[in-house]
Amino acid sequence: YGFYTGFDSDNSSGDFSEANHKVAEMLDLDPHQSNRTGKHNGETEIQENGIKRHRTSLPAPMFSRSDFSVWSILKKCIGLELSKITMPIVFNEPLSFLQRITEYMEHIYLINKACSHADPLERMQAVAAFAVSAVASQWERTGKPFNPLLGETYELTREDLGFRFISEQVSHHPPISAFYSEGLNKDFIFHGSIYPKLKFWGKSIEAEPRGTITLELLKYNEAYTWTNPTCCVHNVIIGKLWLEQYGTVEIVNHSTGDKCVLNFKPCGLFGKELHRVEGYIQDKNRKKLCMIYGKWTECLWCTDPTTYETYKKNEKRGGEQKKLKPSEDVIKSENDEADDMPEVQDTVQFIPGSKLLWRINCRPPNSSQMYNFTSFAVSLNELEKGMEAILAPTDCRLRPDIRNMENGNMDVASKEKERLEEKQRAARKERAKDEVEWHTRWFHQGTNPYTGTSDWLYSGGYFDRNFSDCPDIY
């Protein structure tokens, strides 16, 4: 979840910080687009219906990364563990990884839909769509989220969307982020922990997001668990960075025994399978109840197995004779490198009679100037008036490096990032000298009650707002 996660390390020397000072000129941005209300410093306006408006733009547009190469950094680090590499801040986006995890909640309406269905099959369809939607915000997001400091937290309460969310960085080596969310109507609990396992393959970086995701629908006494697909970013040496998700995701309903198997397809030689997701839902007797197909960057549909198989047979029968229209062809120049991004022009081929499960949200018109953020992501680091007084002192919104990057102060952001990493190193050395163990504040290590595997569980109490014993990490 965010391919660079785990690169920054408090063991690294910061040798590459000089790259941060070689940033290109900022893009022009219409001052009238700075945010929807025209207010600044994170202030928001109350609409007539009492719902808070959230900002629709960042305070400053992103810097160009065109003058920088990831490879220029990585080639100096051959033989080192990826977790020991510090990337220059120009490759970051102004969000912490804890905030990026919160983007799971962008399509919370799918959880609400699951809660509203009496039919367990329809509930599983909604949960499957939610699992796919959780990775959709990564599309074209090749920026690196900031590595959370040990003890860092992030909270988000959205009364308009009906949930509250809390996360904590519970381990630094290995990097582990734990999160817990609950419906304000006490209708669901959503929790998990993510431990990204990174591999560098020369031309690409692969992040396998280990850790269990659990969704509990309280009304039905149901629990679903799954693990996210593998994320890979290509062309880290030369060319345009591009991202794909691949691997098999199995969603298990531990109450009914139903299972959804989703295959995130690797792009393939000519890019034919890029972004495609195919799968099925089966009952406890392994009978297929429905088929699911679509793209994680676009939409997801379902249909009955008979219709799906008939369509596939017809497609295969006419496949050799069928000449693709230009819009369905893979547009690829003869001069392109073999590992360049395949530009697939077609959308999902609709099978008549299918039901739409999910469609991606449109991004704001200025998204390309804002790290390709969704509207939801744009609002995550907003520091509203009066919020600082009630937030935990460890909250991401209070991180000076992220705040300065968001405001376009790249030099200050780079220096603050180095200062925070040095502070974290010094604190760890001090604990080692005094033989003091680090204690997490809001989560504890335990066993997932549904899978029996090791997990980080919410200890409770965060929203009581007793932050007197929170560590000083900033």
UniProtKB/TrEMBL annotation:
Q: Which GO terms describe its cellular component?
A: cytosol; perinuclear endoplasmic reticulum; plasma membrane
What Pfam families has UniProt attached to this entry? Oxysterol_BP
Specify the domain of life of the species encoding this protein: Eukaryota
Q: Which InterPro entries match?
A: OSBP_sf (IPR037239), Oxysterol-bd (IPR000648), Oxysterol-bd_CS (IPR018494)
Q: Does the keyword Transport apply?
A: yes
> Which GO annotations describe the biological process of this protein?
lipid transport
UniProt keywords (A-Z) are: Coiled coil, Lipid transport, Lipid-binding, Transport
Q: Which residues form a coiled coil?
A: 403-437
Q: Which GO terms describe its molecular function?
A: cholesterol binding
Family membership noted in the UniProt record: Belongs to the OSBP family.
What this protein is called in its record is Oxysterol-binding protein
Source organism (scientific name):
Calonectris borealis
Q: What is the lineage of its organism?
A: Eukaryota, Metazoa, Chordata, Craniata, Vertebrata
Its gene name is Osbpl2
